[in-house]
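If you are new to this repository, start here. Below is one unmodified record pulled from the training split, so you can see the exact layout before writing a loader.
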Amino acid sequence: MYLLIYLLCLIISSITGTDDIIKLEVTPSTIKLGLTSQMEIVCSVAPDPAGNYRVLNIIISQSTDTLEPDYTDIAGVEQMLQPSLYVNNSATIQGQTSVTDTSYLKLNWTYPTENEAGSYQCMATLLQDEDFTVVAKTTVDLEQPDFDDLFSELDRIESYFLAETRNVTELWEKKMEGAVTAVFNRSAVFDNKMYLLSKYSNMSRNQSEAMCKFVSGYLAEIESDQEFGFVKEFFNSLYMANETKVIVGGTDQVKEGKWLFQHSGHNVNYFSWAPGHPTNSSRDNSNDCLALDISDGYNMVDVPCNMSEQNFRSRFLCEITHSPYSSSQ
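And here is the target side for that same chain:
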């Protein structure tokens, strides 16, 4: 009797304590937001050559908290049933339970978002004389692309399509449409113009201008109360941290107090200054660029043009008057 109990304990130990039985793998382990095109997570359970157990089910759970995870089941597969998603999810799913082959549950996302970052757990229920579970865990990190990442991705797209000899224009526009969506929030059309608000923060004025130029635009030139009202409504439709300032067209770098648009070269004649702005009383004032302050009702403030001098989170707003990427609007 004691020998039977001892052997049973050995079998249980081999099921619950061996990493070779269950594996949870994710590729890649870091999401670079907007640039990672595919993410795959696979939980696999090895079959028992001796036939001592069989797999009843596999369940993958997720928690956005990596320090103190509180897991929610997101997908599963059971004997005799097709794999299924338990929550609204953009993932595709595959899986099976098997006695002789590897049992597995696989999820795949196209352009994963911040919702797919966090801690993952896979739990498989095995049947021998009784039910036992085996567990594996992993994490997916989230990384904001930096300026070099964005330009590398856009350059990669451009190089790829320049090498194509057929349907270059159609394919280029389709790919650029995806790139623009990854990098910018896009407004509706106002007065034959459209506005693109960057999703990424803390670029210098020159970098912001270069990104706008890449998509056939320029830093937004706000010229009327109606246009300003449309831009504010656009901002209200999005979530932005309260400390954010949005760089727009306008600078007085040439002559303090004389504001000019960088793209058109015209005088800036419309202002809606926040209290205390512009701060152009000092000869060495470095606040030479125009921005909209989210924390002050989107009113205008003058800020440093160089990112190294900025002590706030900044985004930028492009204006496009003719763009092949606005056809869906």
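Two things worth knowing about this chain: The chain is about 20% helix and 35% strand. Helices lie at 2-16, 147-163, 168-183, 205-214, 225-236.
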